[in-house]
Design a protein that fits this description.
Elements (H helix, E strand, L loop, with lengths): L4 H8 L19 H13 L7 E5 L5 H7 L6 E5 L2 H14 L5 E5 L15 E5 L12 H12 L2 E7 L3 H10 L3 E13 L9 E12 L2
Parallel strand pairs: 1-2, 1-4, 2-3, 4-5
Antiparallel strand pairs: 5-7, 6-7
Helix pairs in contact: 1-2, 2-3
């Protein structure tokens, strides 16, 4: 197990990014700094150790692998992009031979999670913001699914989405217990991107689902 936050960030900095990110799926890798902070916070709140951790839209494995470094045997990464999952599996080998992540190729709306008590499940995810027309409201689909299978979740959202998040959580009978703002630097990954790097303001929310 990697106990210190800085050590966790250093380990996660070795994770490989998407090779050909799909703009339709809004694929970008969560930074090691943002991921390590969120996972450390979850662990300090008692939401990692001894829990089943589910990462919806796992991508190349940043959050799932980070969680596994704190909880070596109870992490499930759900991803519908087969090429991303292949990278995620390689990333596990690169980071540590002592952790195990169950990788599942599936769409978020058809997650084949075995029946378990949701009190034992923590969701940790960076869902798409739904900025692309073809993926509009995609973050809502992720929140709906995690509210069904987890008792608590940590998720990253666009900085101006708090109104939507608060309304959705209240509608589902949940409570936002913690929130904080982060700035993440995204590197150019598509031909139409005009800047080499761009800073994006985001929010992280811890949500208790009743």
């Amino acid at each position: 197990m990697v106990n210190k936050k800085k050590e966790l960030e250093i380990s996660l900095s070795k994770i490989s990014d998407f090779e050909n990110p799909n703009v339709k799926f809004e694929q970008y890798m969560t930074s090691a700094e943002v991921a390590s902070t969120m996972i450390h916070m979850a662990d300090m709140n008692g939401d990692i150790e001894g829990k089943i951790i589910v990462d919806l839209g796992a991508g190349t494995g940043m959050l799932a692998i980070g969680s596994a470094l704190r909880n070596p045997r109870g992490v499930i990464g759900i991803e519908k992009d087969k090429s991303a999952l292949l990278i995620a599996k390689r990333n596990v080998s690169t980071i540590s031979q002592e952790i195990m992540v169950e990788w599942v190729l599936a769409d978020v709306e058809h997650v084949p999670i075995k029946t378990v008590d949701k009190v034992d499940v923590t969701g940790i995810m960076n869902p798409p913001f739904g900025a692309q027309k073809s993926y509009k409201h995609a973050d809502r689909n992720f929140l709906e699914k995690i509210s069904e299978i987890a008792s608590v979740s940590y998720s990253i959202h666009n900085g101006d989405s708090i109104g939507f998040i608060e309304g959705f959580v209240e509608e589902r009978g949940g409570v936002i217990s913690h929130s904080y703002s982060v700035v993440m630097e995204l590197k150019k990954s598509q031909k139409f991107h005009t800047k080499t790097r761009k800073e994006i303001e985001m929010e992280v929310h811890r949500i208790r689902w009743e």
